[in-house]
Write a structure and sequence with these properties.
heterodimer, A: about 375 residues, alpha/beta, 4-stranded parallel sheet, 15 helices, about 10% strand, B: about 300 residues, Rossmann fold, 13 helices, about 15% strand, binds iron/sulfur cluster
């Protein structure tokens, strides 16, 4: 058994940690790039959404390197993601690879029993002691959580840094290193080290950067290649950005939902605009947009892949929220032919708009209105 | 009270039920005219650009009706079977129209999650309450509407042509002659009879779905798959024509799954959107029919 898994933000790092902990051989996918996309698009149905093309690209490239067990998350919402595994399986079979799919799917129509059986096949292949297996699982979760927190910290602090580009450099460094580590322990060390380093980045508290919330389709916003590195671009402009959706959020939300935990405030905020689930993360997108102003954001950017059905529904609601709450929201739609130049122009124009609004507000109100700014980011990973 | 009924989306399948129900409740029913260019243009103007053609057309129908009635019957069709769905766009249909079209009359938008009796009667009470306060009258209207719907035969299976093509796809594509540019007539003129996928029994469909690794959670999409596979295996038609909506997430998956299952059985996908030109459409249909004819002759030589 040689395991592989797709690049879904930091999930790949967690999956790698898990494989190391279970002493299972694995193929680590390269971070998504134009080759992944080219391979994926070639074999995928033409009109399928971008995430599938990339995931398929990851799988095919990994299969060429000998991977035979594909890990993938599934979901049986009304959206296509739930059909990904079926399609990917057939495509790989057609290409002549004998592969096994382990779908992490907690919904009732596949059944918890089936899920346990699938986990069982993985667990059985691992030579380590059961106690070690549990430890590996815990470590994997800690890793993904730490990664997500590091990312968030870097995106936020970029607005305050004294030496321009420092946060971005640290982010790159840790991402490169953490993909090469050879044991879960080593991974943890790297992450903790970079957590400290990010905390130590000299920050100018008097800066009052623009704050932007990144919302939209989860895969597209957690995979930098898919969103044309939007967060890094914002870092470059000295803008602080925030994104609620992340792999660790997904896990927490999935476990918490049945107990009405999870992101309740977001769901509550979305209710007046979108009462029912529309699959994917359309409801989250609407709720976050509705909350953005109260969270101290200057604006929100919605990103989703062409043809993404839940986000199209969300998009048609956003203008109403923009009006109601008085917060600018921009939508960026990406696909494999999105041109970088036009994309950057739109982001810059949006940031100009946000700046303009700020200046106007400051002129209009008492100078101490600046106190309204967000709390400076807190320390500690 | 005048209740508007848009002639779009699931109207194609459930219009008998909806009309009977409303009339039995004592409402006057206003149905929008069959889809035409004006309705399409209205829809394209008010709907979000990224939506599929059937959604845009539905917007057009709603826009046509909005000044001609006191309320609109637009149920939020989340699903027709328990724990299954139709499509994400259907779940958000109410948000789409209410945010895209200004000055709408009240919408009777109670959600439908299943067509099972117990669940649907609840819907009937919610929706019917808008017109009629008396619960027993609602229950009566509901029963009549259900009976009328059960009597209704959807689809056709034409005999008497040398060749036959099965139409597969969303009902609002198959039965809306404007959307599909009257494909049935075009095929008939080429000497081809048409059957629609509804002619396959639910039981036969379900048997085919069993072969999938995972049962599709989109009810109708599952039917397209099951029916297509069954038709190809039993040779109920000489070829399958899948009428798909451009940028429809469901179709992008289902056409692929069907194709990978039926092998070299003749299968063609025609994508429809507001830019589909009739000339190109005709050419493709003719090419497909030529191919079928050649195949058929070849088969005769062999036997
Ligand atoms: S949510 Fe969007 S991107 Fe994800 S599967 Fe659905 S359509 Fe594709
Ligand atoms: S199933 Fe396809 S065509 Fe029908 S509403 Fe959904 S996206 Fe549009």
């Amino acid at each position: 058994m040689v395991v592989t898994f797709p690049n879904m933000g930091n999930v790949a790092i967690a999956a790698k940690t898990l494989c190391q902990g279970l002493a299972l051989p694995y193929v680590m996918p390269e971070t998504n790039n134009s080759k992944t996309l080219a391979v994926g698009s070639y074999y995928a149905p033409e009109e399928i959404c971008l995430p599938f093309k990339l995931i398929l690209g990851n799988f095919i490239l990994a299969a060429r390197q000998g991977a035979d067990t594909m890990w993938i998350t599934g979901s049986c919402g009304p959206c296509r993601f739930g059909e990904y595994c079926e399609l990917a399986m057939r495509t790989l079979k057609k290409l002549g690879y004998r592969t096994d799919f382990v779908v992490a799917d907690l919904s009732s129509d596949v059944g918890v029993k089936e899920f346990i059986r699938r986990i069982g096949t993985v667990a059985a292949a691992s030579p380590v002691h059961p106690v070690e297996k549990l430890r590996a699982l815990r470590l994997a979760y800690q890793v993904v959580e730490l990664c997500d927190r590091l990312d968030a910290k870097a995106y936020e602090r970029a607005g305050y840094e004294v030496h321009k580009g420092e946060c971005r450099r640290l982010l790159h460094e840790y991402k490169t290193k953490v993909r090469k580590t050879e044991s879960p322990e080593e991974t943890m060390e790297v992450l903790q080290d970079y957590g400290r380093r990010l905390d130590a980045v000299p920050a100018d508290k008097s800066k009052n950067p623009l704050n932007v919330s990144i919302i939209g389709e989860i895969f597209t916003i957690i995979d930098p290649f898919s969103n044309l590195y939007i967060e890094e671009k914002l870092m470059g402009y000295g803008v602080s950005s925030k994104r609620m959706l992340s792999p660790s959020w997904w896990v927490k939300n999935m476990i918490g939902k049945p107990f009405r935990l999870g992101s309740r405030d977001v769901y509550k905020a979305s209710d007046p605009y979108l009462k029912y689930s529309v699959g994917g993360h359309g409801k989250e997108c609407v709720g976050e947009a509705a909350l953005a102003k109260a969270q101290g954001m200057d604006g929100a950017i919605q990103v989703f892949p062409l043809g993404c059905m839940p986000e199209v529904v969300a998009k048609s609601i956003l203008p109403v929220i923009q009006e109601d709450k008085g917060i600018p929201i921009m939508t960026l739609i990406v696909d494999e032919v999105t041109g970088e130049a036009g994309y950057i122009t739109r982001i810059e124009a949006f940031l100009d708009l946000l700046k303009g609004r700020r200046n106007q507000n400051q002129k209009a109100s008492h100078p101490r209105a600046a106190l309204n700014m967000r709390q400076f980011p807190s320390k500690g990973v | 009270m005048k209740i508007g009924l848009p002639r779009g989306l699931m109207y194609a399948k459930y219009h008998t039920f909806a009309k009977t129900f409303l009339e039995e409740l004592g409402a006057e029913v206003v149905v929008s005219p069959p889809t035409n260019k004006k309705i399409l243009d209205r829809g394209v103007r008010c709907c979000v650009d990224e939506a599929c053609l059937p959604m845009k057309i539905f917007h057009g129908h709603v826009d046509w009706l909005k000044d001609r009635c006191d309320a609109l019957l637009t149920p939020r069709l989340i699903g027709v079977r328990d724990k299954e769905y139709i499509c994400p766009m259907f779940c958000g249909l109410i948000e789409l129209i209410s945010n895209n079209i200004p000055d709408l009359p009240p919408l009777i938008d109670a959600p439908v999650t299943s067509l099972e009796y117990g669940k649907l009667i609840k819907w009937a009470k919610q929706a019917g309450g808008f017109i009629q306060k008396d619960d027993t009258k609602i229950a009566l209207a509901f029963d009549r509407a259900r009976k009328a719907q059960q009597m209704e035969q959807i689809g056709y299976n034409e005999a008497g042509y040398p060749l036959k093509i099965a139409l597969v796809g969303h009902v609002y594509n198959i039965y809306d002659q404007f959307i599909n540019m009257n494909v049935k007539k075009k095929l008939n003129e080429l000497g081809i009879g048409v059957m629609t996928y509804q002619q396959v029994d639910r039981g036969d469909i379900d048997a085919q779905i069993q072969t999938l690794f995972k049962k599709p959670f989109w009810t109708f999409a599952g039917e397209y798959y099951g029916a297509s596979v069954y038709i190809s295996k039993k040779g109920l038609a000489d070829g399958i024509l899948y009428l798909s909506s451009f940028s429809c997430g469901i179709d992008s998956v289902m056409t692929e799954l069907i194709q990978s299952e039926i092998g070299d059985f003749p299968f063609m996908v025609l994508k429809l959107d507001e830019h589909t030109g009739e000339a190109g459409f005709d050419t493709r249909i003719e090419a497909f029919s030529d191919m079928l004819k050649r195949r058929c002759e070849f088969g005769r030589h062999l036997s």
